[in-house]
Amino acid sequence: MKISFVFLLVLSLALSISSAYSQDFISCVESNSANASSISQLIYTPGNASFLPIWQFAVQNTRFLKPSIPRPSIIVTPTDESLIQTSILCAKRHGYEIRIRSGGHDFEGLSYTADVPFVMIDLNNMRSIDIDVAKRTAWVGTGAVLGELYYSIAQKSNNTLYFPGGTWPTVGISGLIGGGGTGNLLRKYATAGDNVLDARIIDVNGRILDRKSMGEDLFWAIRGGVASSFGVVVAWKLQLVPVPEKVTVFIVNRTLEQGATEIFFKYQSLATFEDRNLYIRSQAASEFIGNTTQKTMRIIFQGIYQGTTNELIPVLDKVFPELGVTREICQEMTSVQSTLVFFGRPSTTPLEILTNRSAIPKSSSKTKSNFVRTPIPISGLREIWNKFFENDLSGGLLVIPAGGRMDDYSETATPYPHRAGTLYLLATSVNFVGQANDTTPVSLRRLAWLQSLEELLTPYVSQNPRESYVNNNDLDIGVGAANYKEASVWGERYWKRENFKRLIRIKAKVDPKNFFKFPQSIPVFKRRGLAQ
């Protein structure tokens, strides 16, 4: 009884102290704001009934919903830039770190969790979209998600313009661009970050900067170097790209018994295909054969062609006849309808679903990523399939092809370095379906299997460095940042050496005290010369 009483007393004291600190922050914001009464309606603490629903709303990976996950001390939901400015000022004054959440798709939950007291700036209210069809540009609030952007572009341009972003509708525009951003138009128009014209960012001193006032170094850094390492981006000016009024989509399913291994081997060279209008991603997983205990692999090839079926068929007959695409399985549709298909909905689904964040499913998973520069041989593919047969059907594999327009950029054009010579991005994952959380015995076995798959892939993926995609961030590869040697373990995997060193130099200039920090953010070293 005494132990329980002491525990409750300590807990009560901790909550009281936390509440006092939170009130200090809120008082600071109110005293530095023109309209304190309206500001108070945009700030939430754990004692507020809306606190938990707001925090949970954009937790897209549900493995971070377990009770042990640390939550913010305060949530700020700004409707304009001024509240962000005062939140930065008051967070510094009262010893809070900042986390910035747009769509909530951070693979390690870093935009809404932390092991230290922190203020979460939730940008959900700042999602205005202003499209200029004649100039093919759009100013987009950083709280907007891809579904909202694609819907708006399609409506405004009558399906003649689009943006080369990702395929999942609830991905935030800022997180996507901040890590580079890949999608179905990668081979045609390169990354999302390559198609940004300007931005507005609030720096550590509360200044609002555009491309001209921030300078080309910082503008370079935020388009692939994780923008939240440098400040709070509040809006992006995007270059919209022309697309046909109708594109062609096809889906091909093949199992090992249907020659999937040989087809996949040929598919790996898609990056070398000349026609940039052709993009085919693939997904693979193991499954049981009928009602037997024997397993096979099923590979799904999802293709999109920037043109008609009549234009597509001769291309595939020439470069990839093994895939067996026929006119009967081709569907012509608008680009925005293709987005529906690529996240698993029929093309006839009402487009308004793209603007309904609550209608898009969430997942519970862990992901790792690599880049492949040389086709994995048949023998290697069979090794990988055999590893999948050891899994309990919770594992998956996703391939994002490169090449085309990507080969036109140097690997230092933006921080995203995975350019010429890259065949594809290879993402591997496990889900935690059927498990209460990611720490059950079954979940731990799945994570161990994923790590063993990562080790098996070693001879088949890029080396020196072994490249990874920062938008598929993975804390398992390292978090140390005391010096360059420590940080390079993970930093060079995401950005390669030249880009990582440049990012470190820019960070030291714009945020020398490292206020905007989190695991795997761009580091600031205590002694000069450590980034050399």
UniProtKB/TrEMBL annotation:
Q: Which InterPro entries match?
A: BBE, FAD-bd_PCMH, FAD-bd_PCMH-like_sf, FAD-bd_PCMH_sub1, FAD-bd_PCMH_sub2, Oxid_FAD_bind_N
In alphabetical order, the GO MF annotations are: FAD binding; oxidoreductase activity
Determine if Zinc is one of this entry's keywords.
no
Signal peptide bounds:
1-22
Any coiled-coil ranges, and where? none
- The residues covered by the FAD-binding PCMH-type domain are 68-243
As cofactor, the record names: FAD
Q: Does the keyword S-adenosyl-L-methionine apply?
A: no
Listed A to Z, the keywords are: FAD, Flavoprotein, Glycoprotein, Signal
**Could you tell me which Pfam families the record lists for this protein?**
BBE (PF08031), FAD_binding_4 (PF01565)
Protein family (similarity comment): Belongs to the oxygen-dependent FAD-linked oxidoreductase family.
Q: Which PANTHER family match?
A: OS08G0158400 PROTEIN
Annotated protein name in UniProt: FAD-binding PCMH-type domain-containing protein
